[in-house]
Give the backbone structure.
Amino acid sequence: MKIGFQPIGLIHTPFTELENMPIQPAGGAGVKGTVDVFEEYRAGLKDLDGFSHIILLYHFHHSRGFRPHVVPFMDSQPRGVFATRAPRRPNPIGLSVVRLNRIEDGVLHIENVDILDHTPLIDIKPYVPEFDTHSDVRTGWLELAKETVSQRKSDDRFKQDRE
Amino acid sequence: MKIGFQPIGLIHTPFTELENMPIQPAGGAGVKGTVDVFEEYRAGLKDLDGFSHIILLYHFHHSRGFRPHVVPFMDSQPRGVFATRAPRRPNPIGLSVVRLNRIEDGVLHIENVDILDHTPLIDIKPYVPEFDTHSDVRTGWLELAKETVSQRKSDDRFKQDRE
């Protein structure tokens, strides 16, 4: 069974190459971008400007195939793909929480962006701390690595693999 | 352009009807469920048990079509669909952060569940506060409504609509 999704817009960012991108919004602090929502979906943006942060779901459109284990940018050991945020996943969907600065004519002006230029947008959801924030959290192999995330950049490890 | 995704597992919960479900994990506090990851994807679960919370992306498989404005469960006024977490979206993908209690034989035992039984799983990502948690947040129309979310239940408003 296949589930079909349709891009609802395009994300524009300064990152035109897969290399040297921030690997999470934390590393993209202050980086600005825009989301161009296609005209037929713009009416759905009503009320969104009341939210300071939004969740973007998008298609990792350069990702092909997947392997169950990947060496994440933040580590030197292979980890299970579902224990990482790596793009080469069975269903290559990316998730980033970004700051929403304003909306003008169906264009969202966003900040703290770690997304490749021209990425197809799949969904926008309001970020709600009461739903999305949790305390008393353990983060496994990332415990040691995550302090350095804002300094790390991507490289080409997920680029050329096509299976 | 259509993007094709494949279910990678099934989510099992006590909620067999769309009515009277909690409408967010906050309302599903203590409710337990399981995620049965299909065999070909199980190797990807390595290292996931180090994480106390995980992000589930899933298919709102009962949702058909969408309208740009919806009256959310937590409100009495129509809101832009992207300013809500309602299931009838252009691409009907749900997102919940749940607690991961343990993994046994490819089955994830989860808690704080607000998901319908038999929901197709699309992706699992580790929940990492450094990536996913934000402060100084405004939440628009939800400011007033969200305090009551743990008491609210779903009804059938998203059930019968087929366009």
